[in-house]
Amino acid sequence: MTLQNTSSNFLDYLHLFLNSNIEDVESLTEKVITSFKVLYLKKNEYFVKENEICQYFCFVESGVLQHSIVVNDGEKTTYLALRNSVTASLDSFLNKNPSRKSIKAIADCKLWVIDLETFKDLIENNLAFHQFYYNLIERQICLIDDYRIDLLTLTPEERYQKLLVTEPKLLQEVPLHYLASFLGISSRHMSRIRKNGK
């Protein structure tokens, strides 16, 4: 695990969530970028382990982060953070509670990270970051709501077909057993669905 500063496409991602009416937006976003550092994780390294405190909020520039919990001695994938997304064990990060989940690199990752003190300073004093975070959280709440409804209303086949349409990158970048767990499907059933879908 190594930390350093460097340039990235994080700036482009920030602008996706900003309104055009912010004054001096360039200097504000530059302040945001310089407040983050780059963290490299090798495959199978942890961003945070269950029962530890999540130290960072991050933007995934490359790689995939798997969120998981252990249920009855088996690992269950609760979320997959791909490149050009942000993630954290948010309750742990914001409130310094032990994380209820682990977050692990399932491919080599380049992450932009920020600690809590700097994060709070940007939220309070940087309009661009405040707006970015508000719009981001609003979008994430809508996505989580859709995901939970899908688990209750769609068949495994329908959930897989929706994933094909909405997140085709997942199918290319994430091993089958992680996808199956994320969709609430057994690996064997997932294999049958993929075979029948071809």
What secondary-structure arrangement, pairings included, does this model have?
Blueprint: E1 2-4, H1 10-16, H2 25-35, E2 37-41, E3 46-48, E4 57-62, E5 65-71, E6 74-81, E7 85-87, H3 90-95, E8 102-105, E9 109-114, H4 116-125, H5 127-153, H6 156-166, H7 168-173, H8 176-183, H9 187-197
Antiparallel strand pairs: 1-2, 2-9, 3-8, 4-7, 4-9, 5-6, 5-8
Would you mind describing this structure in some detail?
The structure is a single chain. Helix 8 (176-183) packs across helix 9. The protein has helices spanning 10-16, 25-35, 90-95, 116-125, 127-153, 156-166, 168-173, 176-183, 187-197; strands at 2-4, 37-41, 46-48, 57-62, 65-71, 74-81, 85-87, 102-105, 109-114. A hairpin with a 2-residue loop joins strand 5 (65-71) and strand 6. By secondary structure, it is an alpha+beta fold. The strands form two sheets. A five-stranded antiparallel β-sheet has the order 1-2-9-4-7. Strands 3-8-5-6 form a four-stranded antiparallel β-sheet. The longest helix is centred in the C-terminal third of the chain and has 27 residues, at 127-153.
Task: Please summarize what this structure is.
The protein has 198 residues and is an alpha+beta fold. Helices cover 49% and strands 23% of the residues.
Low-confidence stretches: 1-6
Give the fraction of residues assigned to helices. 40-55%
Percent strand equals 15-25%
Q: Output mean pLDDT.
A: 89
* Number of separate strands: 9
This entry's quaternary arrangement is single chain
- Briefly note the structural class of the backbone: alpha+beta
Largest sheet: 5 strands, antiparallel
Shape: globular
Distance between the termini: 40 Å
Biggest sheet, strands in spatial order? 1-2-9-4-7
Radius of gyration using CA atoms only: 18 Å
Order of helices and strands: EHHEEEEEEHEEHHHHHH
Number of helices: 9
